[in-house]
Amino acid sequence: MGTILIYTWGMKLTDLKTGTTAHVVSVVPGVDGTAPLEMMRRLAELGFLPGEAVRVVARGLLSRDPIAVRIGTGTFALRLFEAACIRVRPEQTLPG
Amino acid sequence: MEAISGAHPSPLVALVGNPNCGKTALFNILTGSRQKVANYAGVTVERKEGALLTPSGARVRILDLPGAYSLDALTPDEQVTADVLLGRRAGESAPDFVVCVTDATNLRQNLRLVLSLKRLGLPMVVALNMTDIARRKGIVIDTERLARELGVPVVETVGVKTSGAKRLIEMLDSAAIPARTAAAFDWRTPTSADIELDQAEVRRILGAVGGDRIDGVTFSDRLDAVVLHPVAGPLILGAILFLVFQAVFAWAQVPMDAIKAGVDALAGWLGQALPQSLLKGLLVDGVLAGVGSVFVFLPQIIILFFFILLLEDSGYLPRAAFLLDRLMGSVGLSGRAFIPLLSSFACAIPGIMATRTIQNPRDRLATIMIAPLMTCSARLPVYALIIGAFIPRRTMWGVLQLQGLVLFVLYLVGIASAMAVAYVLKRAGTAARVQALMLELPAYHWPNLRNLAIGLWQRVEIFLSRVGTIILALMVILWALSSFPAPPPGATGPAIEYSVAGYLGSWLAVIFKPIGFNWQISIALVPGLAAREVAVGALGTVYALSATGQNVSGALTPLISHSWSLPTALSLLAWYVFAPQCLSTLATVKRETNSWRYPLIMAGYLFALAYLGSFVTFRLATALSNIG
To answer: Is B612 part of the contact surface with chain A (CB cutoff 8 Å)?
Structure first.
């Protein structure tokens, strides 16, 4: 079931390996579904929109919070609970 | 022509755009202003107006607005922008013309705002800014095609070059800016779906005009790999801050000695040239001893600001915010609190104003309340005076300067207390939600030398005008209070002990005796409320007048090192870590919070902390020196 979910909804941005490029699948109301709407909208306004290329540039020392994320041509620092709202799918290297 | 300009008010042109896309740099070129610019989001937090006289002689009012990611404002500074554009601002109709400033290297994000601005129906032009950097990065944008696709004119600009806005100025001149019409606003809060539709349109346009290059690993990324590294990053940050405080002492010595020698020479010359009179007393003991002892700290202030400006312009500041975010979060502060707090090292007033970029009102208030604990530059003279007098000029382990180290520690104590107060505020408040960060990390760039020079010159001007106005005036008042009434015939002590200031000081000394302050210090604390540096000048004047016989102007350092004990000096340092705010800061807090409550609480808690801090320091130091 887990695999299917990941395939459908993508993985959490926080689980993406540093330096790996992925694409945004969706912005969801956080892990526990409680992220306020305005926060989700703001993430969208910063450019976290489906299809955009995303990459984790750096992570903090303790509990790896916050993280620096490249989105499109900009870079933003996000706290983990914010980044957890962003679902991504790693770039696939398709043959041919 | 004349009839038109006579009949209609000058057209109002608003500069709008994403944060950190160079609006203020363009504003400065257009209007000849010198508003602060730096490489991070949120430098401009209020509406600024200037005037442009176009080549044809028309006058255009230019409005610089805080950067916004969208018109759907979340923070007080974005609200200003949204209100102005939507014509909701009291007493002001919507602008006649909009210049939408975009960062040519980041169109993927910037064009969405262009699309929503277009929907407002205001006449507009898109300024494609930072085209110099884009060109260097190899980004080629078909400007004509972009204009066709967007349906609005597009001009290229370079905000950091004086000639960079030539095309834009021509445009504002020729654009026959239409007379004010009641524009039909078609605006509602966009849904996520709306934003996604806009982004699809942006992608289509970028595909057509070029400029949609998403770089792999850029220079900034490579630098960030080191600067934001979990271990190397904090070490680099610590090293940079440490270097700054070392430099403040190490580099300033020669120019400070020169200024001191100049002031002394002037005092000596005046002392000889003028007959013994009231005027001589005023000039030598009041003006030179007071103002001179503050003026001497100019080199240290220049060095401090040189580094601050360098950090601001390079893009490093938001990185420092990133590194310290964990710490800020653990005491309940928003990650966005970092930049306002850092600005407070210059002065708490711009720092408190910069809290407008913080979304949550409670969070913003907490940041305002702790901003004064960041050591402002006006405290530097007080620290430097006492450190210079009591801490030996010793080099430790070959490279460390003891004086610079003590200064660094004082700044750290201020920061640590700010964090502690924030923590108390967090515990006292209701259970807070986790606070948002969402801070943009702009691409690094080399500091612009012209920018740096202007910024430094502005600091020099601010310092000199403070010295020349408020500090000078307070010195003259203090001199008068310290000189009158004249001592009764047959008095044995120095005249000041019989003056108004002398009496006032001896009353105040009762309050401050438990923390080790003598009456001279107590008297100096009072004008220090108007401006911190005045405390130093006041000590200069008070001591110049307390000394009998010889001329002591300018030589404050040896004087206090002889007449104060080390515990007293340390106690005064502790006092100024917390020192109740200067009055202009309290007035700013009143304005920003729109209530007397918070400035009063602030003054109260700072006074209590200062008294407590000094008391503990004085008692501890006394006990230790007794053992020793």
So the answer is: no
B90 is a domain residue: yes
Higher per-residue pLDDT: B494 or B374: B374
Residue with tokens 């604390």: B525
| CATH no. for A2-90 | 2.30.30.90
pLDDT for residue B413: 92
Cβ–Cβ contact A18 with B under 8 A: no
Both tokens assigned to B346: 């210059």
- Regarding beta strands B97-103 and B124-129, do their DSSP bridges make them parallel or antiparallel, or are they unpaired? parallel
Domain containing B158: what range?
2-209
Chain B residue numbers with beta carbons less than 8 Å from the beta carbon of A41 are: 72, 190-192, 195
In a domain? residue B238: no
pLDDT digits (tens, 9 = 90+) for B325-382: 888 888 888 778 888 888 888 788 888 988 888 878 888 899 999 999 998 888 888 8
Single-letter code of the amino acid located at B472: L
ipTM, two decimals, is: 0.86
Q: Is A58 on the interface with B (CB under 8 A)?
A: yes
Q: What is the pTM of this model?
A: 0.81
Domain positions in chain A: 2-90
CATH number at residue B151: 3.40.50.300
B574: Cβ–Cβ under 8 A, 6 or more apart, which residues? B610, B613, B614, B616, B617, B618
Residues B509-553: pLDDT tens digits? 888 889 999 888 888 888 777 777 778 888 887 777 776 544 444
Instruction: Give A10→chain B minimum CA distance, Å.
Output: 18
In this complex, do B335 and A39 lie within 8 Å of one another by their Cβ atoms?
A: no
Nearest to B374 by CA among B241, B472, B247: B241
Q: Is A13 helix (H, G, I), strand (E, B) or coil?
A: helix
Contact B60, B51 (CB under 8 A): yes
